[in-house]
Write a structure and sequence with these properties.
By secondary structure, the protein is of the alpha/beta class. Helix content is 37%, strand content 14%. The chain has one domain.
């Protein structure tokens, strides 16, 4: 039987390298946009981190809140679109002298200034376009388009989505081993596997120490798409 690897994640904002490596490892990757938005300091649905003079800077898009209503990720809208102008300026100041800035500036800024109001659609567009530029042929799907019903919990959601695309393997982040119900996957004919992503260091502008976990934009401006793709290929071989 041919193996089909599925990966899943909520559509984060300008995600980090590991997010795209999981897409690279998957045959099908599902952007889970119909789950509840949890507003917390650790949420990357509307936040992103950059390197600014050797320090990690976190930028957050203010989201319109509807009083008394639970909002799913695909129901989020920013308070205004002025944040795009502010982000562009901060990114320009932080990365203007990086090796690949001039080459990729227009492409990245066009993505940042996408006029879409819906924040989930905005994030999904960014993810899709970066995936294309990395020449990753993984099929991307959106969970709200898949009409999955009767979901009991997070694991049940994963299994139902995986079965909907006839997946034989579900790829999880390494931290997922702490809470995954291995037996439940096995009983549903899905093998649970884990990403082998390892943080790799690359030259970062204006810092003597490597800063992990930044938006993929940091790597794009510092080493470019081609070198980033080569790193993915080398990791995948191991």
């Amino acid at each position: 039987m041919e193996k089909t690897v599925v990966g899943m994640h909520q559509p984060n904002m300008m995600p980090w390298i590991g997010y795209f490596y999981k897409i690279f490892q998957s045959d099908i990757f599902i952007l889970v946009d119909d789950i509840q938005f949890i507003k917390s300091g650790s949420s990357y649905t509307n936040s992103v981190t950059f390197n600014e003079r050797g320090k990690t800077v976190k930028l957050t898009v203010p989201i319109k809140r509807i009083k008394g209503k639970t909002q799913n990720i695909n129901e989020l809208f920013p308070v205004d679109n002025d944040w795009k102008r502010r982000y562009t300026k901060r990114i320009e100041l932080a990365y203007a002298r990086c090796d690949y800035y001039k080459q990729e500036r227009d492409f990245i800024f066009e993505l940042i200034n996408n006029p879409t109001d819906n924040h989930s659609i905005y994030n999904i567009n960014f993810i899709k376009e970066i995936t294309k530029r990395l020449n990753i042929e993984t099929e991307l799907k959106i969970s709200s388009d898949m009409n999955i019903i009767g979901i009991k919990n997070a694991t049940d959601r994963i299994i139902k989505l995986a079965k909907a695309v006839n997946a034989t393997q579900y790829i999880s982040g390494r931290g997922g081993d702490k809470y995954q119900d291995h037996e439940l996957y096995k009983n549903n004919g899905i093998e649970l596997i884990y990403s082998n992503f390892i943080d790799f260091e690359y030259k970062q502008y204006r810092t003597d120490h490597f800063i992990k976990g930044l938006s993929i934009i940091d790597a794009i401006f510092n080493i470019g798409f081609e070198n980033l793709r080569l790193h993915f290929e080398e990791m995948y071989k191991k």
